[in-house]
Structures are given as structure tokens and as C-alpha cells.
Design brief:
357 residues; alpha+beta; Phosphorylase Kinase, domain 1; Aminoglycoside 3'-phosphotransferase, Chain: A, domain 2; five-stranded antiparallel β-sheet; two-stranded antiparallel sheet; 12 helices
């Protein structure tokens, strides 16, 4: 069996042993070294298999917890949109194993942290997204719809996990109605927007800087057919990096030009003007960031993943800022500012201490 570059007791990780057996016996991969590449917010894990000639990625998706089918299906749809998604070299869907092209180890976020100029990186990311939205207009009908049930299921995560578990703030009946009214307004507005192919997590951790055809796009298996601004707001109001409003507006203007250039000026995918599109962006972003508040809290309290707590304040800032931009949401904005923002620092401190102890 090939040597590994990290030490693991095989009897404690049966999936790792399975990967070695698969690479050696079924794939017949040339001598390799295996090392952890990354993990995500699900049960999936990724390993880098390095040979003398190349580097590959092994996706480990335990079939009792994850299904590789959506990944493979969406990957094929995105490849037809002429964007850079990882090639697939071997599959064992029954055992939840995929051997993929290695898109490198520098996500957009790492490049930004290292001081890279954001302008060309975001230009590439927005051009790729425009290609997905335009070339994917037919393919999007092969995806499930981002319908009212999905929107409301996502919104329900915030009261349960962020309010009750993380802030330890039991909502009164009046506060529950306030949140419900805000959710009703958001859902109504979002469902009226034009639909496109939605990656659903198109942000700085899932866009890899590659030597050619950058960015490489990963983590797309949850794609849906949904509101046109969703991926744009995921990128420009990223939960992991924040940009000034003016810069976001400039990027939105460039993105709309890209879409209109491909489809013609009369398309409704990019709204009548930049102002209307920014309104869409704020509404969809608010729904997304409310969901993320719940997801990040759940990742900590249920799954023991500490790293997301530091991103809660930024995500909450987006929620408050967007809510204040709509008269219908101002009561909710005031509540979020007076309760959520006031309690979050102490809640984060308590959570970290509680997990340490």
C-alpha cells in the first residue's frame, strides 16, 4: 500500500482504509501520498492524492449521510455552461468515493488575505457567474426549485439556532409575529424575481484561483433554480469578507453589463436598472444572511465547528443594514439591532467558554 503523509490509526477510520483500498485496487493509481485537503460544513471530506506526475482530489462522501449523485449531475450542467468545474476521473457512487481534478489550494478568500488585487479576481468570478446564468437558462430546469417551502425552511433556522440556542433569547409571541411578518415580506418579494441557475454557495471559499480558466468552482451540489441575484449577493455580500457599498454597486453594474451583453438589453434577469437590482440584492441577501445566522450557530452547537462564530457579527451587520433599507422591515431592523447585536458578543464569549469547559 502506498505511504501516507499523515499518521492515522486505520482501525479508527474505516473510511480512510476504504479510500486506500479503492485507489490501489480499483483505480490502480500510481504510487501516491495521501493527505487531508479540506472538509466542509457537511459530512464530506477531501483528501489530496499526490503522485510523481500529478495531484488529484478524493471526495469522501459516506453514502449513509451524503449522496454523490447531485454533485455529479450539477457538475455536468455547469461544465456545459463553460465554467471551470473539476473533471471526474473515477467514481464509486455506491461507496461514496470520487476522484477529481485538483483545483489547487488557494481559494479567493486566501488570495484576498494574502493581499491580491480584488479587481481582476472579482471580474473573473462575475464573468463566470454571468456565463452560468445565461448559458444555464435551459439547464436550470433540471434543478429543483428554490420555492417557498425551501425559503421558509431556511428562514426557520435563525429563530431556532441563532435566537434560542446561541443568544439564549426565547422569543415572545410579539417577537415571533415580528419575525414572521418580515419573513412573509421577504418570501413574497423573492418569489416574484426572475429565476436562474443558482449555485447557492458562490462565495470566496468556493472559488479557487487557478492558472487557467480561473476561478475553479466547487461545492455546487446543492444548486437550485431560484432568484437571479442569489449568487451575486453570495459573492458580493460574502459572509467571510465585506466590501463597501459603493464597490458592490460598481460590481453589480459590471455584472449587469455582462448579462445584457450575452442576452440583450431587454432581459429581465438583471432588472430595469442598477437601483432595482440593488433592491433585489438586498432582499435576497437578507434572506440568505438570516439563514446563515442559523446555520453558523447550528454548526457550532450541533456539530462542534468553532470557526464560524467569528463570522456571525459580519453576517448580522448585513442583516441589520439590509433591513433598515425597507420601510416594511424597519421594526424588524430595530429589533435585530437592539436584541441580536446587543447580545451577540456575550453569546459568542459564552459559547466558546462552554465548549472549552
Amino acid at each position: 500500500m502506498a505511504a501516507t503523509s499523515f499518521v492515522v490509526a486505520m482501525h479508527t477510520d474505516t473510511r480512510l482504509q476504504l479510500i486506500h483500498d479503492w485507489l490501489a485496487d480499483d483505480v490502480a493509481l500510481e504510487p501516491y501520498k495521501l493527505a487531508p485537503a479540506s472538509a466542509d460544513a457537511s459530512f464530506r471530506r477531501y483528501f489530496r492524492a499526490t503522485t510523481a506526475q500529478r495531484s488529484l482530489i478524493v471526495m469522501d462522501a459516506p453514502p449513509d449521510k451524503e449522496d454523490t449523485g447531485p454533485f455529479l449531475h450539477v457538475r455536468a450542467l455547469l461544465a456545459d455552461c463553460d465554467v471551470h468545474v473539476p473533471k471526474v476521473f473515477a467514481t464509486d457512487t455506491a461507496r461514496g468515493l470520487l476522484l477529481l481534478e485538483d483545483l489547487g489550494d488557494q481559494p479567493l478568500l486566501a488570495a484576498l488575505d494574502a493581499g491580491a488585487d480584488p479587481a481582476p479576481l472579482y471580474d473573473d468570478a462575475l464573468k463566470a457567474l454571468a456565463s452560468i446564468q445565461v448559458r444555464g437558462l435551459r439547464a436550470m430546469h433540471e434543478l429543483p426549485e428554490y420555492d417557498e417551502a425551501v425559503l421558509r425552511r431556511e428562514l426557520a433556522l435563525m429563530p431556532e439556532w441563532f435566537c434560542t440556542h446561541h443568544l439564549q433569547w426565547p422569543l415572545t409571541d410579539a417577537q415571533q409575529r415580528l419575525i414572521a411578518d418580515a419573513e412573509d415580506f421577504l418570501v413574497q418579494q423573492i418569489l416574484a424575481m426572475p429565476q436562474v441557475f443558482v449555485h447557492r454557495d458562490y462565495h470566496s471559499r468556493n472559488l479557487m484561483i487557478t492558472p487557467t480558466r480561473s476561478p475553479g468552482i466547487i461545492d455546487f451540489q446543492d444548486a437550485l433554480r431560484g432568484p437571479a441575484p442569489y449568487d451575486v449577493v453570495s459573492l458580493l455580500k460574502d459572509c467571510y469578507v465585506q466590501w463597501p457599498r459603493r464597490r458592490i454597486e460598481d460590481w453589480v453594474g459590471e455584472f449587469r453589463k455582462q448579462v445584457r451583453k450575452r442576452l440583450g438589453a431587454g432581459t429581465d434577469l438583471c432588472a430595469a436598472n442598477d437601483i432595482e437590482y440593488m433592491r433585489w440584492l438586498d432582499l435576497v441577501g437578507l434572506q440568505r444572511h438570516l439563514k446563515v445566522l442559523g446555520i453558523f450557530a447550528r454548526l457550532f452547537w450541533r456539530d462542534g465547528k468553532r470557526g464560524y462564530l467569528k463570522d456571525l457579527p459580519r453576517t448580522l451587520d448585513y442583516v441589520i443594514d439590509a433591513s433598515y433599507r425597507f420601510t416594511e422591515l424597519r421594526p424588524f431592523a430595530q429589533f435585530a439591532e437592539q436584541v441580536f447585536a446587543a447580545r451577540l458578543p456575550a453569546a459568542n464569549d459564552f459559547a466558546l467558554q462552554a465548549r472549552i469547559e
